[in-house]
Specification:
alpha+beta, Heat Shock Protein 90, Jelly Rolls, four-stranded antiparallel β-sheet, 3 domains, elongated, 14 helices, 465 residues
C-alpha cells in the first residue's frame, strides 16, 4: 500500500511530513477485521503500534466469566506500543464492533524511527504521554465514583434512620402538645401545699436528671410496668399500661408512685399523675429529637472529615486514627448488615504522618470495604496501628476465607477482581497501590483461611509532595 491518505485521516498525524508517513507505511502491515474479530486479547504481548484508520473496537475486561465494556476506540485512535512505552501485555480484549482497518508497525522499527524521523517520534511520544495522563485522570475519577458508590447508599440509610426518628418524634410531640389546654384545666384545679408541690417536683426533677442512666433487663422492666400499670388502673386510669411505659423509662417504681399518693389528695391524683406523664412525655420526645439531630450532625461532621471539604488538597500532617475511625463510621451500615464486629486498637498518641488526607481515606475505604465483602455474617474486622522510631504500621485484618494463592500476585493489578459485574471494578486495590506508592509507603498482604492481613507501612520521615 503506497497511499498515505489513510494516515492523513488520523488527527495526530496530519502535520507529520509526508516522507515520514511514507516510511511508517512502508514498515507497516494492514489488517482488516470483521465485527466480532479480536484486535487483541487479554495477555497478548503489546509489541506493535496500531493505528485504527477505519471502523471501531470495543475494549472489554473479564470478571468471573462476564465481560464489561470499559472504552471504545474509533477511527483515528492509536493503541498498542509507542516509542519509550513500557507496556507489557494487554489487560483486556478489543473486538471489532464494525468492519475495521488497522495499520500496525512492530516495535523493532522504533529505533530507526527515533533516529531518523524526529517529527513522527515527537508526535507519537506526545500521544503516549497524553494517553497516560488521560487514563490516569479517568482512573482517578472512576476511583472517586467507586468510593462514592460504596458510601452513598449506606450514608443515605444512616441519615434516614435519625431523620425518620426525628420526624416521628416531632409529630408525636405536636399531637401531645395539642392536649395541653385540656390538661391545663385539670392542673389549675389542683389544691396542694407548697411542701407537697416540692415533694412531687423534687421527685420529678430527680427522675429527669437520671433519665437514661440505668438499664433494666427485659424481665425487670416488664415486672415494673405491670406494677405501675396496676397502680394506675387501681386509681381509675384506663390507659395504665401506656402510661406505665413512660414512668418506668424515667425510673419510677411502685414505691415512687406511693410517694406521690402520700403527698396528693385522692381526688387530685389523676391531675398530678397526668401532669407528670405530660411533662415526662414532652421531655422524652425532645430528647429523642435532640439525639437524632446530634446523630445527623455527627454523620455530617464525619462526611466533611472524610472528604476534607474544609481543607486544601495538599500534603500535610494526618491523624491516621481519626481517618480510619471516620471511614468506619461511613461504612457502618455494611458492618451492621453482616453483624460484623469492628475492633479498633489504635493508640490515641499515635504520631501524625505527612500525607494527603483525602487519598488516605480512599485507601482505608477500599481496604475496609474489601475486608467486609470477604467476610460472612458475624465476622471480625480488626484494625491495629503501631510505630517505632522510623515507621508507622497499620494492619487491617479480616476473618474471611482468605485470598487464593493463585491470584494473590494479581490483586493489585488494574481491573483485576474476583467480584462479579456490578460488584467491583478491579480498580480498588490498584488505586490503593498507586496512592501508597505516591506516599513512598509500602503495602503487603498475608492471607490464609480465617485471616487476611493487609499491612500498610509509612515512613515517619516521608516528605512526599
Amino acid at each position: 500500500m503506497s497511499d498515505i491518505s489513510l494516515l492523513k485521516k488520523v488527527p495526530v498525524l496530519r502535520d507529520v511530513p509526508d516522507d515520514q508517513l511514507q516510511w511508517l507505511l512502508d514498515q507497516s502491515q494492514t489488517s482488516h477485521y470483521k465485527p466480532g474479530d479480536y484486535l487483541f486479547s487479554k495477555g497478548d504481548e503489546i509489541d506493535k503500534l496500531q493505528i485504527i484508520v477505519e471502523g471501531e473496537f470495543s475494549i472489554k475486561i473479564e470478571q468471573n466469566g462476564e465481560f464489561r465494556s470499559v472504552a471504545t476506540m474509533k477511527e483515528g485512535d492509536l493503541t498498542g506500543n509507542l516509542p519509550y512505552s513500557r507496556a507489557g501485555s494487554a489487560f483486556g480484549y478489543a473486538d471489532a464492533s464494525a468492519p475495521s482497518t488497522v495499520i500496525s508497525v512492530h516495535k523493532d522499527k522504533f529505533k530507526e524511527m527515533i533516529r531518523e524521523h524526529h517529527e513522527l517520534t515527537t508526535i507519537l511520544v506526545h500521544t503516549m504521554t497524553s494517553r497516560v495522563r488521560e487514563f490516569t485522570k479517568q482512573q482517578q475519577q472512576n476511583e472517586k465514583l467507586v468510593s462514592l458508590g460504596k458510601l452513598s447508599a449506606g450514608l443515605a440509610h444512616e441519615l434516614n434512620n435519625p431523620a425518620s426518628a426525628m420526624t416521628r418524634s416531632a409529630r408525636e410531640l405536636k399531637e401531645h402538645l395539642s392536649l395541653l389546654p385540656e390538661n391545663f384545666k385539670n392542673v389549675i384545679s389542683i389544691r396542694m401545699s407548697d411542701e407537697q408541690v416540692d415533694h412531687v417536683n423534687d421527685l420529678l426533677f430527680k427522675k429527669v436528671e437520671e433519665y437514661g442512666s440505668r438499664t433494666l433487663s427485659l424481665s425487670d422492666r416488664s415486672s415494673q410496668e405491670d406494677e405501675i400499670a396496676d397502680w394506675l388502673e387501681d386509681r381509675g386510669f384506663e390507659d395504665g399500661y401506656e402510661m406505665a411505659d413512660v414512668f418506668v423509662e424515667f425510673g419510677f417504681s411502685e414505691e415512687d408512685m406511693d410517694v406521690i399518693s402520700e403527698n396528693v389528695s385522692e381526688k387530685d391524683i389523676p391531675s398530678v399523675v397526668g401532669w407528670l406523664y405530660s411533662v415526662m412525655t414532652t421531655e422524652k420526645l425532645v430528647i429523642e429529637i435532640e439525639d437524632s439531630a446530634e446523630r445527623i450532625s455527627g454523620l455530617v461532621t464525619s462526611v466533611k472529615s472524610y472528604s476534607h471539604m474544609d481543607k486544601s488538597s495538599d500534603f500535610g500532617p494526618v491523624d491516621i486514627g481519626k481517618g480510619i475511625s471516620t471511614t468506619i463510621t461511613m461504612l457502618n451500615h455494611k458492618l451492621k448488615q453482616k453483624q460484623i464486629t469492628a475492633d479498633l486498637d489504635i493508640p490515641e498518641n499515635l504520631s501524625q504522618i505527612t500525607a494527603h488526607p483525602g487519598q488516605l481515606n480512599q485507601v482505608w475505604t477500599n481496604l475496609i470495604d474489601n475486608a467486609i465483602d470477604a467476610m460472612d455474617q458475624n465476622g471480625l474486622l480488626k484494625i491495629t496501628a503501631e510505630e517505632n522510631l522510623e515507621y508507622l504500621i497499620v494492619h487491617i485484618i479480616d476473618s474471611g476465607s482468605g485470598i487464593p494463592e493463585e491470584v494473590k500476585s494479581q490483586i493489585f493489578d488494574p481491573f483485576f477482581t474476583t467480584k462479579g459485574i456490578g460488584e467491583g471494578t478491579g480498580l480498588g486495590l490498584d488505586s490503593v497501590a498507586r496512592i501508597i506508592r505516591a506516599h513512598k509507603a509500602d503495602i503487603s498482604v498475608q492471607s490464609e483461611p480465617g485471616k487476611t492481613d493487609f499491612r500498610v507501612c509509612f515512613s515517619k520521615n516521608n516528605k512526599s509532595k
